[in-house]
Design goal:
about 130 residues; alpha/beta; 4 helices; about 25% helix
């Protein structure tokens, strides 16, 4: 939130489906259009750059990437002078984030859930960035 990202949580009825519990799910105002994927979103306003869909790898989730994702706009002088921002959707995939939760989705299910998120934000072209 500090870096102007909005959190999109899972439905409150699923609060106890992830352990350790995630208290910010109780505070978040926005709900993810996906039934299982939560994410952080920064709006896309750039007319010259594509937005970024970021998918983390196995580990502790998005925490190690916070500074990296926040700095994407800071390193581009053209964006600084125009006041535009490169939008980012940073997906959280709980089964590979050292959480006790439901099993990971199959490929087709994952693609369908990601597509729901992209459609809500109107993204049809973007850069796919991932780690591990």
């Amino acid at each position: 939130m500090y870096h102007n990202f909005d959190y999109h949580r899972s439905p409150l009825r699923d609060f106890f489906s992830v352990f350790p519990f995630r208290p910010h799910n109780l505070l978040a105002k926005r709900t993810s259009p996906s039934r299982v994927l939560t994410y952080w979103h920064r709006p896309h306003t750039s007319k010259t750059r594509l937005p970024i869909l970021f998918i983390h790898g196995i580990g502790i989730g998005l925490y190690p990437y916070v500074d990296f994702l926040a700095e994407i706009n800071d390193k581009d002088n053209d964006l600084k002078t125009s006041g535009e921002t490169v939008g980012i959707i940073a997906l959280e995939i709980m089964p590979v984030s050292f959480r006790i939760t439901n099993q990971a989705l199959q490929k087709d299910e994952t693609c369908a859930e990601i597509n729901k998120i992209l459609q809500v934000h109107g993204w049809d072209k973007f850069i796919l960035m991932s780690h591990s």
